[in-house]
Amino acid sequence: MTRPVSFGVCVLACCTLLVCMACAPPRSGRVVVGAKNFTEQVVLGELIAQEIEAVTGQRVERRFYLAGSYLCQQALVSGRIDAYVEYTGTALTAILKQPLPSPGHRDAASLFATVSRLYADRYKVKVERGLGFEDTFAMVVRSSDAQRLGLRTISDAVQRGPQTGNAWRLGVGYEFESRPDGLPGLRATYGLKIDGAPRTMDLGLLYRALASGQVDMVAGNSTDGPIRALGLTVLEDDRHYFPPYEAVPLVREDSLQQRPGIQIAMDRLAGKLSADEVRAMNDAVDREHRDVADVVREFRKEKGL
Questions:
Q1: H or E, element range at 200
Q2: How confident is the model at residue 245 (pLDDT cuts 50, 70, 90)?
Q3: Is residue 21 classed exposed, middle or buried when 0-12, 13-18 and 19+ CB atoms within 10 A define those classes?
Q4: Do 128 and 142 belong to one domain?
Q5: Residue 195 lies in a domain
Q6: Strand 83-87 relative to strand 247-252: parallel, antiparallel, unpaired?
């Protein structure tokens, strides 16, 4: 006679099954493209997806708005996605956990070579040729303050801050405050003076805070749409603190072997985007509230893709 299974055991078994299903890589016939949870990433993810569809004639699954580099990396390594776009400086420090090279050795070519080797050795992931632009961290101020204080570089800002003692009311995203290529190193390199604690907020709120006068400087990204839309000023990183942040697709090696069309699509996209073009697409989505797929489709048509 069999013993009845308790309700608790059934619940435990069901939960275990659900966890296993969530963790298992869905290696279906479709290519799966991922993206982080901000506008530019969704634009680039859509660009890659549309190009693969154009080459292969097969529908690509989108898994966008993944919360940051760590989650994208885990999804890529586990096989839940086949590809996503990363930035070489972020890959080096946040994912591969490598120290920043000295400022004199932060050229894009050597950084790309290091990142490519480590991804291949550790994860069997190919770092594709860059899309043609960098999205570096950018210290951004109101243009009226830049003109009034005579600011062109970050060093200028250290010498001529708007608050007492040349300090700045600073707004930053959550990652920038603590990551190794973020605020701690920036302050050590430049001696930037901050008026109180930096205000941390979602990336989408930084420019609103700057425009409304809640902060005087924000740590944004060089291709952010609001820089163009609001006519803000990006301060030159004259001490070359930030490493290169070249936008590069990361693709699983087994995905490339199984689906050769992915490589054809990546080759067609290599070098096709400028920072201004990315900034314009970001602005079209953020400020004009246009559909991402339409914006990307229009860009591809202009490029003859």
A1: strand 199-200
A2: very high
A3: exposed
A4: no
A5: yes
A6: antiparallel
Which of these, 293, 294, 299, lies nearest to 280 by C-alpha position?
299
Quick one: 123 and 254 in the same domain?
yes
Considering only CA atoms, which of 26, 39, 29, 122 is closest in space to residue 73?
Answer: 122
**Domain coverage including residue 176:** 137-235
pLDDT range class, residue 78, cuts 50, 70, 90: very high
Nearest alpha-carbon partner for 72 in 218, 251, 275: 251
What is the C-alpha to C-alpha distance for residues 89 and 95, in angstroms, rounded to an integer?
10
Q: Which of 192, 207, 235 is the last residue in one of the domains?
A: 235
Write b or e for each residue in 233-271: b if 16 or more Cβ atoms lie within 10 A of its Cβ, otherwise e.
bbbebeeebbbbbbbbbbbbeebbeebebbbebbebbee
| Structure-derived torsion over alpha carbons of residues 115, 236, 85, 18, reported in degrees to the nearest 10 | 100
Q: What is the pLDDT of residues 10-51, one digit of tens each?
A: 444 444 444 444 444 445 579 999 999 889 999 999 999 999
Q: Which amino acid is at 243?
A: P
pLDDT at 5 over 50: no
- Contacts of residue 56, Cβ cutoff 8 Å, sequence gap at least 6: 31, 259, 261, 262, 265
Nearest to 275 by CA among 237, 225, 220: 225
